[in-house]
Batch of 4 targets.
Target 1
Amino acid sequence: MKTKKYYSQPDVPTSITCWSFTWMIFLFSMLLWLEITVFQVWTLSFLIVFLIVAFIELKGRYLQITNEKVKFHALIIYNNQEIEREKIQSVTRNKWGVVKIHTENETYEFLMMPKTAKKVVAELS
């Protein structure tokens, strides 16, 4: 089987925290624009930084599924970056796209688009 890649975001609290900091960059660029009242290079530079950070956050987090394991790619590396497929006990999803992967010791949560979540559950079940 080929390696399949599905874009995702971490669990809900982590996603809210990360995206809040990202949106702070955007709001700071808008604040500069309103303070100076003219669109200047500072506003443009912070807007470009926001776009780069948002692109990295969207494309840098994904699940890579192979026959042997499920590997998590994240921006900040943390423990247990991969799960062997035989250790997965169940995989569930809800209608909003939250996928939960249950193992013996832990439950992993990921946010995905609902159609992508459906594909992941079908792939891992």
Note: The first strand starts at residue 4 and ends at 7.
Target 2
Amino acid sequence: MEQLFYELIQVSLKQLDCLSRGPEPEEWEELHETARQQKMTGICYRGVQALFEFGLRVPQDLVIDWMAQAETIEERSSIFTQHTIKVQQKLAEKGYPSSVLIGQGSARDYGDELMMLREPNGINIFVDADIDEVTASVDIPEWDETPVMLHNTIGLGKNPYRNWKLRKWFAKNRKSLFVKDGEMVRPAVSMNVVYLVLNLYWRFLYEGITMRELTDVFFALKRLADKERASQVKYDKIFRSFGISRFAQGVMWTMHTVFGLDESLQVVKPSAKQGQFILHEVMSGRHFFRLLLKHPIEMLFSIL
């Protein structure tokens, strides 16, 4: 069933025309539940619609529920986008540079057809200032349905040496964090790829990740190929300097295996061994002791 789910994702992203076989009614139920758990309900609904052309139809009761859920996600995404823009405008009015990280920033890479179907969960904005100063001088709106999180540091877990290197690198490349993109300011394409993999690593260790976060990386890589591949950023060197080279290689493997991304668009050499471990954790749920065996230093830091 996992392979069928990956195929549904690829159909949804127009990486594949059709599934390798037609799912049984109970399998459609399982695919829907997996999509829900992986925060991919809206995205996968686009795949369901595309499969109608091939005569693959979801049971009527399920497809009605699925459609309603997708419409709800679209409505929430629209609200989150409006609120993100409003918060950035208020910060700009007071002279605070800000950049939208993940969330609605990543959604912009999905394109017009899928952008509002990315399931939102909050607004994350990097502010280049003291947070206490910002919150004291800027009237940040509060919405029950749209949590707003302001950050002025970018971390990579609890390892102080790694975080020192990370802050030093971001300070050196500060301008790439603040690039105008329509009504938003967010990281440059090349910077965004680095940030998303770093954020993925942090979440992988301490919170757990879903297919939604991996999809963000997929679209960032697609956009990179369209916009900035000529910049020749040495991603392997960057990830190695942060100590996450193997993790980044595993992420690249999932890009091809799950999403069908052309290997020429991967920024570092893929690793099947690391990728299989990441994918297992995504699909089966975060397991501390498996992570401890693979990432002992970071997991020990996490319990200090």
Note: Residues 60-93 form the longest helix (34 residues).
Target 3
Amino acid sequence: MKKRVVVTGMGAITPIGNNIETFWNSIKEGKIGFGPITGFDTADYKCRLAAEVKDFRPEDYMDKKAARRMEPFSRFAVAAAKQAMEDAGLDMTKEDPYRAGCAVGSGIGSLQAIEKEHARLLEKGPGRVSPLFVPLMIANMAAGNVSMAFQLKGKSIDVVTACATGTNSIGEAYRTIQYGDADLMVAGGTESAITPLGIAGFTALTALSASEDPARCSLPFDKDRSGFVMGEGAGIVVLEELEHAKARGAHIYGEVVGYGCSSDAYHITSPAEDGAGAAAAMVNAVRDAGINLEDITYINAHGTGTHHNDLFETRAIKLAFGEHAKDIKINSTKSMIGHLLGAAGAVEFITCIKELEEGYVHQTVGLRETEPELDLDYCRESSREHITYALSNSLGFGGHNASILIKKYMD
């Protein structure tokens, strides 16, 4: 018998707030996190805007020695995990550490470490490359550092599915608890890839917006969309088996009830043009929850602001839901925070939890006018809504499609 899985803690480091309260208030205010890149000189770059994390202090979450042995993506993950653990009120001295696991993913790992050590290799030779280079750089070290920081000795995994990483990580944590392999999982995604190589690489793919106007750069579903804006940060949640959470008197934010995946098997960067892969992931998540497609009235879209994604995701929603698609509220959190790559799905999952909790659907900021085929309700304005379910989509390079379904908690 599959176990029920609930959310009992949340933490976030984002371009519009470094904790849940600040982030959520910024979402409701329609605040955008875009601005000129500050980490390096962009004079020779076509893309000069990003959604950077601001005023982040690692020492607020870990000692300086630990911080020095982590790259930014790992620091963001540990900070957000600490927030989530404290929010959940977890005391690990009272838990079986082998029943507490970690599923924290990063799509890329540390480009900062790669750039720094490659320069050192060229300038000073192989003997001068740091012995910590590999453990600082590899993507699984976010999960490793979170596990070590909080003594999570159960299943520890790093799912890497590009932009679907955060959603897959939470989904796999959900499955782990659902099938009895853990009582609780710390899960989510983290990313920090606003670097010379990161921006140059995504620009070469023609994936990034070249707009220099922060108010008109990340424009999901708008006819003027020209690419995504790179963001950074982390979203981490604590998932628990329902009876375990109730036994310790935990506050329950929401319930995870469905998880669906698929592969486009089509192209390394473009989604399938007919939307069939993404549609299958959504349908699989709804079927997993044992509900009807008509029960879905809100979707937090992948909504990157690229021409292909927004068009093909719209086709996917229509393919999955038929005529009912016109009755679904669809928004994109990326209109405010940009694309956090491996962290995107996790931060958007948190957004969905808050929307369910408050009966509030945020606007897709910057959306003015769509195109003839983009004819669904993309939330030009925020609204108060009676929503029971939130479906969150993430679509990653390589054709990875993941959808996770959250329900307003009812005992």
Note: The first strand starts at residue 5 and ends at 13.
Target 4
Amino acid sequence: MKKFMMTICLCAVFLVSGIMLAACGDKQLPTTYTITLPTSTDYTIESDRENAEAGQEITLMITILNNKLVLENVFANNIACEENYNGTFSFTMPAENVTISVQTSQIQEVLSTNFVWFDDDNLYTITEDGDGTYDWYTRDLNITFADKQGMIIVNETISSSNQGVIPDTAITFDPVTDSDLHGASGSNEIVKGVIKIDPFNIHSGTTYLTMEFVNGNYSYGDSNRGTLVVRITVVPYGELTLETVKETLVIDLFSELQYSTGDTFCLRIGDSDHIDGTSNPSFVDYVLTMESGRRLIVEFDYILGHKYWIRLVEGDTQPNIPVGYVEEFVFDNSIESGDEESEYTGYYNGSLMYMEANDRVTIDAERNPALED
């Protein structure tokens, strides 16, 4: 009897245990699904989760490495992800595995529209800052608006495709009115604009600037808005070299003084439009020897479109206080007089900017008799 009762007890224990084990086996763990990310040399992509349950929010961070591309869309199983304010993308995890795909497009430059255009004389390569000497300089890009017959408000949005090269915080925009260019005779119509780039906040590399402009007076219609896209390269300070052409400058001397063949003069040719950060010098001194016919001839490197000034003194150096030097330069029948108070007579500033490639320009110079020893 005792043996029978023990058998019944054991069977009951096993039965209860089996029920408990069965109950534990029926409890299922939450189902997770995988997130597969693409690989590319054009961009990097990161997810805040590798696996997730259905209904969880997933955040993706995409960084474009190819500066010729722009990010268009991000998809999770062919469903577009939502772009967040901070540049990330997000989606809600479905009850299935997810494969992420990224859509990019080639950036196309747009240099002109019927509303605004990028000026022809702008540089597409600019330099970083130097040693702090020129901390008041900016790297300016100029635009011109079509005649809008009284546009006095312009709304702009300027962004950079590569924040590591030119961050948006390094860019400012200054509108230029007709009166800024022509004084009191001009109007308050906005006719141009200057995009200023802070050289102390940019780094070497290439980026695309997207510049959107809208007429604040009449914003509707394509004729009142325009978007420019410009590729800008940043190089280290001093590593930008502007293309030059060889020019010949001839100076004919007319003076009461009797110059002789072999007399020595020092000519300084300066670039009035010198660009900070270039390898091109702001001025060059030339020691010249009088040829027959009271003529001085020099060949120099000229940057087309730049305005140059010249300063001529007797001797082989440029003294701080010139004693005997040329007072006037005559060019195209226009006399450019020097400034005796600043002791820079013999300073010519003007028409050299109109030189073209392979020009030979002759300037007549007259010595200042009042400065004779």
Note: Confidence is low (pLDDT under 50) at residues 2-6, 8-23, 321-355, 367-373.
